[in-house]
Amino acid sequence: MTSLAERSLAVFPAGSNGEFDLPPELAMVIARGDGCRLWDSEGREFLDFSMGWGSVLIGHARPEVVEAVTAQAALGSNFAYVNEHSLGLAEEIIRLSAACVALRFCASGTEATMYCQRLARAFSGRARILKFEGAYHGADETGVTSLFPTKFRDFPEPDPTSAGIDVADRVLVAPYNDLAATRAIIEAHGPEIAAVIVEPLQRCTPPLEGFLEGLRAVTAEHGVLLIFDEVVTGFRLAYGGAQEYYGVVPDLVAYGKALGGGYPIGAFGGRTDIMDLVREDRMGGDGYVWVASSLGGNPVSTAAARAALRVFSGDGVYDRLHGLGAYLRAGLRRVLDGRQIKAQIIGDGPLAQVVFSDRPVFDYRSTRAGDAAKGRAVMLGLFARQVFLNPMGTKLYLSLAHDEAACDEFLTRFDETLAAL
Question: Could you tell me the CATH number of the domain that includes residue 155?
Fold first, then answer.
């Protein structure tokens, strides 16, 4: 009889819905999840350090989310219009986000960042977006540009990374954490730049002291909008996201992932004068920006999100998430030192990454200078030891369902993997 894993290899390119690139012998089909653990169709239990690429910060099958979703599903799954849950969620996001005075919902973080860029171009009358090398802003053209280039071009020339896109005249690229280089690009191309989009914490690389503040200052000086892509950092570093954590307020902000409590969601918002461009009574005018979403703000996803936010806003939640992240990163360092392996441990909050390099990591190129082959071998070794993660990446996601015992369990398997290599 053909297994579910074999069937998945027959219908999905490379056996997945994207990016995992597992060898056929490691292919699997997930049956269920609970807390920080998954079970596949063969009954094997996996320790989850991907957590839906960070979208399940609250943990799999969190009872509060399950209850909220179950109650709403019986009342209707989608109306393509404002509902009680979407209204309440919007009001809470506006309350906690310094950047958001008005917002709209969409179905994913990709859409949220895409709409922020569209608004920036319309508001400014300028065509170009400046992003940082190695940053991911969703699956649209800007998001995958210079995402993981192997041929390092001179800044600000973009690398398409993916075939099928053409961004040569629409995207500029700067090195993350290099404020001087970024300022020089903005000064040279300012009249063409609509916005700078940034992951405040880029992948797992924290901003250097003064970088975000300097970015805010130089964009304001040149009339360039600043977009925070908080799809990952939103609700992960603090209840108010990177805006609260770093004390920097952008002009536009995009949300997704953890906001949905494991359900598909996207949201974007900003100042009233920018967001008013989407009003339909402007249709037909030069300044109108089309924005709509069949599934954006649907009552099931927004019910899940409201339940998640009630948990995130509880006492001690972020002390817990930051404490777990520090515990895991310290454990990774201890294991690596015990094996006398040179590597950098980066991350913040409930995020961690190992870069097999003896040099400090502060941007994409310094990360790329690490031993990528060893990194992939370790990730595949962990996967083979029933730790669920993305072997194409090296980011580890913690959740509220993890605890120190789960981290210890991971660290044991990490040590075993290093020993086997």
Answer: 3.40.640.10
Cβ neighbours of 158 (radius 10 Å):
24
Say whether 176 is catalytic. Answer: no
Give me the phi and psi of 382, to 5 degrees please. Answer: -65, -40
- Residue 214, burial from CB neighbour count under 10 angstroms (0-12, 13-18, 19+): middle
* pLDDT tens-digit map of 26-48: 999 999 999 999 999 999 999 99
Domain membership flag for residue 68: no
Question: Does residue 342 have an active-site annotation?
Answer: no
DSSP sequence for 194-248:
EEEEE-SSBTTBPPPTTHHHHHHHHHHHTT-EEEEE-TTTTTTSSTTHHHHHH--
Q: One-letter amino acid identity for 60?
A: H
Catalytic residue among 40, 115, 255, 257: 257
For 375, residues 6+ apart whose C-beta sits below 8 A from its C-beta are: 354, 355, 356, 394
Q: What is the pLDDT of residues 207-219, one digit of tens each?
A: 999 999 999 999 9
Integer Cα distance of 415 and 407 in angstroms: 12
CA–CA gap between residue 137 and residue 268 (Å, rounded): 13
| Domain annotation covers residue 67 | no
- Residue 274, amino acid: I
What local confidence, expressed as pLDDT, does residue 392 receive? 83
The residues, any chain, with a CB within 8 Å of residue 273's CB and separated by 6 or more, are 123
Average pLDDT on 354-367 reads 96
pLDDT of amino acid 165: 87
Per-residue pLDDT tens digits for 293-330: 999 999 999 999 999 999 999 999 999 999 999 999 99
Q: How many domains does the chain have?
A: 2
pLDDT at 393: 76
Residue 227 CB contacts under 8 Å (≥ 6 apart), including other chains? 113, 116, 117, 120, 195, 196, 197, 198, 250, 251, 252, 253, 254
Same domain, 163 and 48: no
Examine the residue annotation and report whether 257 is marked as an active-site residue of this protein: yes
Q: Residue 181's domain spans which residues?
A: 76-312
The residue from 40, 48, 136, 251 that is catalytic is 136
AA identity, residue 67: E
pTM for this model (two decimals): 0.97
Cβ-Cβ contacts under 8 Å for 235 (sequence gap 6 or more): 57, 241, 255, 258, 259, 308, 309, 312
Q: Which of 48, 159, 229, 251 is catalytic?
A: 229
CATH number, domain at 24?
Answer: 3.90.1150.10
